[in-house]
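Usage

Read records sequentially. Each one opens with the input sequence:
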Amino acid sequence: MKLSEKQLDTIAKAAANAAIEAYENHKNQQEKKKHDRRLRNIKLLLRNYRSFKKHCEDVRLEINILDEKLELEYLDSNEFKIESIKRSKEKTLAMVRYIDKVLTVYKVMCEQSGDPEEIRRYQTIHQFYISDGKMTADEIAAWHTVAKRTVYRDIEKACKALAVLMFGVDGVKFS
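and closes with the structure output:
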């Protein structure tokens, strides 16, 4: 069975359209995964914020001690281990400072909006992840006189706003 030129052209166009559609679907899925990963990263950073903060309490002193050890053991094989620990502590300190700045900007944005829901979202994030005395979702719900589900919705919306502040345009999910 021999196909005509017109039939071949139709088949080629259909195949090209199917390939383009498959490529677009794949690209959209990758973008969605990228956005979801950023939201997950925001939540991961927030969940570990208190531990990071604790880790950074005496980090300057620890870095100075590590520097002294590096000077004393310059040729020792532990030099690389100490340098690695020092870099890790410096990265953690830098990340905590960055998170603090982003949270400050978010707080100001929420307060300046004058929207009680925005203010509550910041307070919810602060009470759940940041404050010294961690509150549970039930305690936060009672504090704000809202449903527990509202607390989790507030966290979701706040994390989306924080993703934009932390990652810029990469934190935005385009439809």
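Summary fields computed downstream for this record:
- The mean pLDDT is 80.
- The first helix runs from residue 5 to 47.
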